[in-house]
Specification:
The protein contains 3 helices and no strands. It has 94 residues and is mainly alpha-helical. 1% of the residues are buried.
């Protein structure tokens, strides 16, 4: 990802994958089921509308980009919330 602006430490952690967030060790049945539905729907679309292959490809690319941005934003929020919890925990008990 080329970006001319200075990136935050949180973004650097996300991109570096320090915590191996992109590894999918266990995928539950709900995830597998949803993925199967997408694969089947895409195959059906291409079968019924072969002329729309380029449009579907662009849609898939845009959808992946949107999910990647959403995942980054959720990581940022989660990291900040976790940090706030740690800061609250180290305050002296009154």
């Amino acid at each position: 990802m080329e970006d001319t602006k200075k990136r935050s430490l949180i973004d650097e952690l996300y991109d570096y994958d320090l915590f191996h967030l992109t590894e999918t060790e266990e995928v539950d049945e709900a995830y597998k089921s949803a993925m199967d539905r997408i694969v089947n729907a895409e195959a059906e679309l291409l079968k019924n509308f072969p002329d729309c292959k380029d449009v579907l490809s662009e849609y898939q690319s845009a959808d992946i980009d949107l999910h990647n941005l959403s995942n980054r934003n959720e990581f940022r929020k989660g990291f900040r919330v976790g940090t706030q919890l740690v800061l609250e925990m180290i305050k002296p008990i009154k």
